[in-house]
Amino acid sequence: MSHDLRAPLRHIAGYGDPLRELEGDRMAEKSNRFLNNMLDSARFAGTLVDDLLTFSQMGRAALHPAPVDLGQIVRVIVQECENDTPTRHIEWVIGDLPRVVGDAAFLQLAVRNLISNAVKYTRTRESAKIEVFATRSGDEYVIGVRDNGVGFDMKYGAKLFGVFQRLHRAEEFEGTGIGLVNVRRIVERHEGRTWAEGRLGEGATFYFSPPIVFRDVK
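The chain above was modelled as a monomer; its predicted structure follows.
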């Protein structure tokens, strides 16, 4: 179904972009606005289809446990974020992160979603601060991503990991509402858990704690 949905969305963008290039100067301002809104919506729908496909694959794809250096994963993602936001001032505080056993590709996707969320929701801050840290209790690690962004009201916290659930308007912050769902599914596939804490206007912390597949790597 995802492939069937992609085709018409590609056609909309494929014809809409040349139309804007050929006729944009001759179109009325209102017509240009309608065309731009149409193309933006088509691209958003395409992204949503891709995210839903990823979400679907999370439940079927086999895990390939192997040694994973969480610190290295975080360093690569932070560098990517810095390259994507060259004009922003973000203070990064990266703690000592464990080497674990898990599916490297899925883990990287989960951590990328959490860090990207922190970058997105600190966008309104003149000086953003994002921390990535780990604690250990017995044979369980707790990995946390904390930010000083817009935060959220804890009474709506149960919605954070639900499909299409958003606590902020799409006009304020882009996204499809699938990222945190994928994080939870990935962690649950590793027999772990996810949760979040936050205060409106004071930032948020997202945690995941995988107790079984993630083990010390000697």
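The first helix runs from residue 2 to 23.
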